[in-house]
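Structure in, sequence out. Go:
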């Protein structure tokens, strides 16, 4: 239950940040160009609006989106990896190397999360938490703020410890699932949502090339490929079948008329 809620929170956060950043950039660019158009009333109103903060906010949003999107990628198997050599090993060695890679990822992201958390704490989070709970914090560094939004920078930098911690958790989660089932999360980069995937025949070899350039087409004959009469009849269109059937029926009728 908790893991499912975390999955939804992760997806909603990435979706919101991506959509909101795109919308803010669009409005900012439209405001910049429309404010230069001499339209009475509208131009004066646009010049009163201040969008100098838009670029800084979008940069912050994209940083957060990238950190949590990386954790999402670990969970869904969307990260690209070179596994040609790994897949050529026997099952035992392949299992060891995959586990080593997952644990190395967990270790690296765990170190980044720890160092990032220490940096954020010393960069102003310490001061903010002490002031929030009424603890004396006179000699503690308050921390800088961002230039345009004037937000505490420790809030912005919190994406590093939070995102890296979630990514470390995802590495451990995938490693545990691989230990139990022997399977890794896999994402088909060629899949398009809303379209049904074509299921090839059982004996179909997608790497069997006729011209050493293109994968074999299941439906269409490749240029230069010769087909027998039976294959042409098999792959003919319904209209061609109808025409051929009509011609055969006429031939039969003509022969019967000659015999009579």
């Amino acid at each position: 239950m908790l893991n499912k809620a975390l999955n939804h929170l992760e997806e909603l956060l990435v979706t919101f940040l991506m959509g909101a950043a795109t919308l803010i950039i669009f409005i900012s660019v439209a405001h910049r160009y429309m404010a230069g158009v001499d339209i009475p009333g509208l131009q004066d109103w646009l010049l009163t609006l201040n969008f100098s903060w838009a670029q800084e906010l979008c940069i912050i949003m994209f940083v957060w989106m990238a950190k949590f999107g990386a954790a999402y990628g670990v969970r869904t198997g969307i990260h690209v990896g070179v596994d040609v050599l790994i897949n050529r090993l026997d099952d035992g060695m392949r299992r060891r190397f995959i586990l080593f890679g997952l644990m190395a990822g967990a270790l690296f992201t765990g170190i980044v999360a720890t160092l990032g958390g220490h940096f954020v704490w010393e960069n102003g989070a310490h001061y903010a938490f002490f002031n929030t709970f009424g603890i004396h914090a006179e000699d503690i560094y308050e921390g800088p703020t961002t230039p345009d939004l004037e937000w505490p920078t420790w809030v912005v930098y919190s994406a590093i410890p939070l995102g890296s911690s979630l990514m470390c958790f995802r590495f451990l989660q995938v490693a545990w699932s691989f230990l139990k089932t022997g399977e890794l999360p896999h994402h088909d980069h060629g899949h398009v949502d809303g379209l049904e995937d074509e299921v090839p025949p059982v004996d179909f070899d997608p790497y069997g090339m006729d011209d050493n350039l293109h994968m074999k087409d299941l439906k269409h004959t490749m240029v230069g490929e010769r087909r027998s009469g039976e294959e042409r009849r098999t792959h003919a269109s319904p209209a061609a079948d109808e025409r051929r059937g009509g011609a055969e029926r006429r031939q039969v009728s003509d022969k019967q008329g000659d015999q009579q």
